[in-house]
Write the structure tokens for this entry.
Amino acid sequence: MIPKKVIVCDLDGTLAASKSPLGEDMAEVLGHVLKRYTICVVSGGAYSQFEKQFLSQLHIEKDLFKNLYLFPTNGTTCYIYDTKNREWKQEYNEPIADKDKKLILKAANALVKEFELEKAKTYGDIVEDRGSQITISALGQGAPLSVKEKWDPNQTKRTKMISALKKQIPQFEIRMGGTTSIDITQKGLDKAYAMGKIKALLKVKDEDVIYVGDALYKGGNDEAVKATGVDFIQEDGPVNTIEFLSRFM
């Protein structure tokens, strides 16, 4: 394996099941890896989701948090651990302008009606404003994983939805996220953008970084990473990711 300094991981479907708590085995492995490497976690979820799903389950020595960087909403914002005050602080944010947000929300709500998403059983809001990202969750933000996994296993439904959205708001970045969601950000703000931020922030080169994700396929929310110069690897689920990360312990 080529020596690396930074390991960048997707969250949902890679480190943990979609919107599910980080497993104990994964938390233990991450704790060991953080003693030797910098880990960056990039996901479509908001920071509040990172707190609930990831940080609350990561029981490690506080000093190791200095080696952990969080990039919610696909890298359109970043959080770094302040070792002096022992708290997470926002490093940067790329919010969607209000005028653009109105256009996106209008298109998102029209999509919900066009595909009759509101007529099915849903669990919470379908359209969520995450500040720097608008997310459409077809079954609602709180849908059980067992239900979500059956809804669009081959991404055919969301492929049609994305095509419809691109006709309405082609000026924005639109991609799949998680198992039932579609993420919308400003043009050019995707995980490739996040990789650029990571390299600049940590002062590392392409060859120093490896990306681990479960959606590197065409249309997946990890696909943009393939256009960068960093190495990447597809791992289908936390079990496979644990096996991979164990090599860095």
